[in-house]
Amino acid sequence: MAETTELAAERAREQANTGTDAVPEAQRFDEASLDRWMKANVAGYAGPLEVRKFKGGQSNPTYQLITPARKYVLRRKPPGKLLPSAHAVDREYRVITALYPTGFPVAKTYGLCTDDAVVGTWFYIMDNVEGRILWDQSLPQYDPAERNGIFRAKIKTLADLHNTDYVKIGLEDFGKPGNYMGRQVDRWTKQYKASETEHIPEMEKLIEWLPKTLPAQERTSIVHGDYRLDNMVIHPTEARVIAVLDWELSTLGEPLADFTYMLMNWVNGAISHIPDLKAHGIPTLEETVELYCELTGRSGVPDLNWYYAYNTFRLAGILQGIVGRVRDGTANSPHAAQQADRVIGLAQASWRFAQKAGAPA
Question: N or C: which end of the chain has fewer CB within 10 A?
Answer without folding.
Answer: C
